[in-house]
Amino acid sequence: MSDIKSNENDSLSQEVASEDLEKWEKISRERVGDEQVDERLEQLANLSMEETLELKAQADELNLVMAKTLGLDVASNEVQTVVKQYLDYTEMALSKLQKKEVIVDYERFIAFANSIANDAEKRAAFEFVAPGLADHFSNAMLHFSEENLK
Q: How far apart, in whole angstroms, are the C-alpha atoms of residue 63 and residue 89?
């Protein structure tokens, strides 16, 4: 019985994930155009649904960990440790997607930090986790970049 329930939950999770991916694809096509989206989808096609869901789960977990640091100074060791984990995750995920080693440099990390604060969809995704998370995470990433990637 529990195996049946587990399989039903897995199927439901994959359906929801698929619907979310379709929604984000549509939004992305409107924002950045078909060529960029097609390139990213081609990269995602190299991953199984399980691998894609695992990457999303890891990102979600990092967002939750960062949300627990709200109220701490962005320069604190606790916050900067999470930012380093996020940088490591980003490099790993991009490397998987692009099938080559990707190193995120100062300019790229700054651009990503700014997009979290200024891009409406990204901001909304972080704010959904916790109010204030977008600015907190962005500022923490900017601090990390200045101290470690310059």
A: 12
Query: From CA 110, how far away is CA 22, in angstroms rounded?
Result: 28
Q: Are residues 21 and 59 in the same domain?
A: no
Tell me, what CATH number does 80's domain have?
1.10.490
Residue 27 burial (CB count, 10 A) = 13
- The two three-digit tokens of residue 142, written as one number: 């900017």
Contact present, 6 and 22 (Cβ < 8 Å): no
Angstrom CA distances, 41 to 45, 53, 132, 134, stand at: 6, 14, 30, 25
22-52 pLDDT tens trace: 665 566 566 555 665 556 656 666 777 888 8
Q: Tell me the residue range of the domain where 133 lies.
A: 50-150
